[in-house]
Amino acid sequence: MYGPLALLVVATALFASGLVWWRVRRRAAEPLPGGVDLEQVQGFVFVGSGALAVLGVAVLVLGLVGRGGPAEAMGVLGLIAYLVYLLVAVVLIRRTARRGARRAANVP
Questions:
Q1: Among residues 21, 29, 32, 47, which one has the fewest Cβ atoms lying within 10 Å of its Cβ?
Q2: Which range of residues forms the domain containing residue 36?
């Protein structure tokens, strides 16, 4: 079961980074609602996707070595950690965007 899980992990990483890359390149001039910078989103997603792709390779290697159970657990926990990472990134980006908007509004 570790093989399809490793493929799912790598496919999730490629899909997320491809989707964000396509959106940033397609609409580079339009910011997201709330003043969120697309370049920051792209950076967070690319870093997370790179880590997730490395995790997918590690799941495959660990499974091929003969430790299928820990490989599957590592893959599932990695996907959950990626989701939490993206949620924290969105919260941080929105918070800094709001803080920057407030500072710009208070400048005389």
A1: 29
A2: 2-106
Beta bridge partners of 36: 32
Give CA–CA dist 1/13, Å, rounded: 19
The residue behind tokens 């990626």 is 82
Encoded tokens for 19 = 């989707």
Q: What is the 3-state secondary structure (H, E, C) of 88-100?
A: HHHHHHHHHHHHH
Q: What is the largest CA-CA distance in the chain?
A: 65
The pTM of this model reads: 0.78
Pairwise pLDDT comparison (98 vs 80), residue with the higher score = 80
Token pair for 79 = 């996907």
Helix, strand or coil, per DSSP, at residue 10: helix
Q: Name beta bridge partners: 32.
A: 36
Instruction: Give the total number of structural domains in the chain.
Output: 1
